[in-house]
Each structure stands twice: as structure tokens, then as C-alpha cells.
Amino acid sequence: MSENSHGGKFYALNMFDVADEEKYLSYFSRLPEAAPPYGGRMVALGRFRDNVAGDLAPRQVLFLVEWESEEAFNNFRDDPDLADLHPLRESSTASYIWQTFDGPDMSDPDLSLDDVLRVLKP
User: Fold this and answer.
1) pLDDT (tens digit, 9 = 90+) per residue, 77-98?
2) What CA–CA distance (Å, rounded) separates 86 from 69?
3) Cα–Cα distance for residue pair 66/107, rounded to 1 Å
4) Rounded-to-integer distance, Cα 74 and Cα 101, Å
């Protein structure tokens, strides 16, 4: 997998409540075929367990996708060929948060403290 322009990974974090399970499953069942051609790899899917700290209202579900680059993510999000896919997500969820992040590959054996510090600096 290629790295993004920041020399690391690009992630899209989704947190949401399920409003229509059947409709969300229609969306989610298409992702294993829809995301990879655009450079997306599903990394994590989880159910909320506990609010340990912080002031963000909990969401039922967390979904994390790793993308080859920001451009790959934008191509997936903006492709007119997927115009029928994204409304399934939007209409089947509530309290939706979709944020993107980039940073070093934490599994890289050559990861340095400087790589980590670059994420912490504004």
C-alpha cells in the first residue's frame, strides 16, 4: 500500500448510531467491493462499551477505514458511480461523525519518536 503525501497513513473515522439496521446493512454489505478499488481498507468495526473519558456524546458504532491517500478517500466519496451508496449510509444512521486523520504507520519497525512528535505538533 502506498503512503499518503504526509509519509504515513490516512484514516476515515466514522462514529454513529444506527437508525435503520436493514438500510445500513445494505450500505455495509457493498463496502468490501466498493472501497478497495479506491484504496480503502476496512480496519475496525466496534460497538460502544464505555465512556472512559471525554466530553463527546457516545455513539453506538465505530468504523475505521484506512485509505491509501486523502485523494483516494475523496475519489471514493465523490465518485458519481457511487451516488446511490452514500445516501444509504446517510439515511440509516443518526448522530453521524465522519472525520479524517493522518499519521505514521504504527506497525512500521522504523517508526521514530520524531514521527510520533510530528502528529502532536499543530
Assistant:
1) 999 999 999 999 999 999 999 9
2) 19
3) 13
4) 13
